[in-house]
Amino acid sequence: MSAEMDRIEARVVHQLGVMRTASEDLDEVRVTVSSPDGSVRVELDGVCALVGLTLTPAALRLDGAVLGRRIVDTCAVAAREVAARRGAVMERFHTDFAEPGSESPVRASNF
């Protein structure tokens, strides 16, 4: 019985480490993207919150509607990158968290 408890304890310790690493990796996700013309730069955090916005002098000469669209479009590009990075973190999490020799729960489902 002691060997089985040791195995369970080791697995739990491993899984806690995997969870901590994934949490830290998700907290560190930050993406900075510039518009194609370089007039707008946005920075999004790991939950796609806008944490930085830089407008060049050229951006300030744009019509308000055009500037607004450029900011939104640039944020959309950044949000897709955030999603990709978060997805990579979660894929590693599922792979590392799964019981050795078992299929990852995400891959085993019918999504």
TrEMBL record:
Alphabetized GO MF terms: DNA binding
Name of this chain's protein: YbaB/EbfC DNA-binding family protein
Leader peptide range in chain numbering: none
Gene3D superfamilies: Nucleoid-associated protein YbaB-like domain
InterPro entries per the UniProt record, alphabetical: YbaB-like_sf (IPR036894), YbaB/EbfC (IPR004401)
Recorded superkingdom: Bacteria
